[in-house]
Design goal:
The chain has 14 helices and 12 strands. By secondary structure, the protein is an alpha+beta fold. It starts with a helix and ends with a helix.
């Protein structure tokens, strides 16, 4: 309600100011014009009367002395309803239509009067000023006149009251003021009625806006086309519908994300900007089921693992360090035998206090399967190598015996030897694979001649090249090439290259 009153007050004050300026400025201007024209007309009337008095003074030839002058001034002043004063040179008053002849010598010297001073330099002088003698504002008109016989030359001055002008102007001013009061009162009443009429839709819009601020997006403003603020009410209704649709969409997306979040087999931990737990999913909650309150704690207090805490501290502090790579990885062991692959990512320019997301992927079973596979390969290799070596030795013994054998047996033994060598090679490959998967070097590099290693591989693959009618060309320098490597494995590398080329 306070907002409505403030709006109404501002509207009233604004309307009054505009109305006042609209009325006052033209009224003041009109009054100023009338006042100026009336004053100018009074000036002109004073000049005309003064010229008439001067003409009468000059026309009456019987004016021979000061007494005759006084009589004429009294007659003219009474007839023209003005005050006529005759000021001789030097400022001495020798005649006045409103002063008895006996008191004229007691009048002040008029040499310092503005109109007298101006009349000395110009034909006609007109001055409006306050008279100390009669205590009124008068209009003075003065002009120089020649002397006649015993009357010396001087200045004839006319003084007329401004009351004839002031009184109509005052009545006009009062009429203007009364008119303005009536108009402003009527305007204020009209504004109050209009504001009360507008107050209803404004209050409805305020209530709708407050409802939207309180998350009640179903509130609507009912108005018909042509009513006050109809476009604004429609905009508010449209905004409420749009916000309602966006909130529903966001709510649905949030529910979907929460469902995905809880359905993940990986444990997910959301950290705030201080590195404390803000949220966890169902999989991670199973690991922390023994802790009553998880939110707001540090990861070390929930999952007792120093490596995990250091990783979380590092990823939260990434923005402060200015590191471009926001993703960190590590492997940790929890509960003594469970291995987890941990990925931590810093959220760029995160809002709402979210700092990072940490995902824990259980790779315990994968690690176990890798160990089983490595052990299987090693065991199979060791189990097969002993009998195959025995078969190879036995075959070589048969082939190198003194007792001659038939061609059929010799061919048979050659096949056995060939297959045996192939199986031995397979076993060696399996052992090599097991060594590579352990990521541990099984040799110490030493300086050797790469040419000798290539020659050994050449001899081993010679029979395959001859079977396909191929020959090798060696372009290595005669002095050889010294490298740091394991001799057997370098031979194996060259042998693989040559066999691939032959195939």
């Amino acid at each position: 309600m306070q907002h409505n009153y403030s709006f109404r007050t501002r509207l009233l004050v604004s309307f009054w100011i505009i109305l006042s300026l609209t009325l006052l400025l033209p009224s003041w201007y009109y009054y100023h014009i009338v006042h100026r024209d009336a004053l100018e007309e009074s000036r002109e009337d004073a000049v005309r009367q003064l010229k008439l008095a001067g003409w009468m003074l000059d026309f009456h030839h019987h004016v021979e002395d000061v007494e005759d002058l006084q009589s004429l001034l009294v007659a003219l002043g009474k007839q023209m309803q003005v005050r006529l004063t005759y000021v001789a040179e030097g400022g001495k008053v020798i005649g006045d239509s409103q002063v008895p002849p006996s008191e004229i010598p007691n009048l002040d010297n008029h040499a310092d009067r503005p109109e007298i001073i101006q009349s000395m330099s110009q034909e006609m002088a007109v001055v409006v000023r306050f008279s100390r003698t009669v205590q009124k504002e008068l209009i003075y008109a003065a002009m120089r006149v020649p002397g006649k016989q015993s009357v010396p030359p001087g200045v004839l001055r006319l003084a007329a009251p401004l009351s004839k002008v002031k009184e109509p102007l005052e009545r006009l001013k009062q009429s203007f003021i009364l008119f303005l009061i009536l108009v402003l009162s009527a305007g204020a009443l009209l504004t109050y009625v209009i504001v009360r009429r507008l107050n209803r839709p404004v209050r409805a819009m305020i209530e709708a806006a407050e409802a939207i601020s309180e998350r009640d997006y179903t509130r609507r403003i009912h108005s018909a086309p042509g009513q006050e603020f109809y476009p604004l009410t429609q905009s508010i209704n449209k905004m409420a519908r749009s916000i309602d649709d966006h909130v529903r969409t966001i709510t649905e997306q949030k529910q979907q994300l929460e469902a995905i979040f809880d359905a993940m087999q990986e444990g997910v931990m959301v950290l705030d900007s201080r590195g404390r737990i803000r949220n966890i999913n169902r999989s991670l909650a199973e690991l922390t089921s023994g802790i009553p309150q998880v939110m707001g704690r540090r990861p070390l207090e929930v999952l007792v693992n120093l490596e995990l805490q250091e990783l979380c501290d590092e990823v939260v502090a990434i923005d402060e360090k200015g590191i471009e790579n926001r993703l960190l990885r590590s492997q940790i062991v929890l509960d003594g035998d469970r291995t987890y692959d941990v990925n931590a990512v810093r959220l760029p320019h995160s809002e709402g206090g979210t700092g990072a997301v940490v995902v824990l992927h259980d790779i315990t079973e994968l690690k176990r399967l890798e160990r089983v596979r490595r052990d299987f390969v090693a065991n199979v290799s060791h189990e097969l190598r002993t009998p195959l070596t025995s078969i190879k030795g036995y075959t070589e013994t048969l082939l190198s015996g003194v007792e001659p054998g038939s061609e059929t047996m010799s061919s048979f033994l050659q096949v056995i030897l060939k297959n045996t060598n192939h199986m031995v090679k397979m076993v060696e490959d399996l052992l090599q694979l097991a060594r590579l998967e352990r990521n541990s070097p099984s040799f110490t590099p030493v300086p050797i001649d790469a040419g000798n290693a290539l020659l050994a591989a050449w001899k081993a693959c010679g029979h395959l090249a001859e079977a396909k009618g191929l020959r090798f060309e060696n372009d290595l320098p005669e002095e050889g090439i010294r490298v740091s490597a394991d001799s057997d494995q370098l031979v194996q590398v060259f042998r693989n290259l040559l066999e691939n080329a032959i195939r």
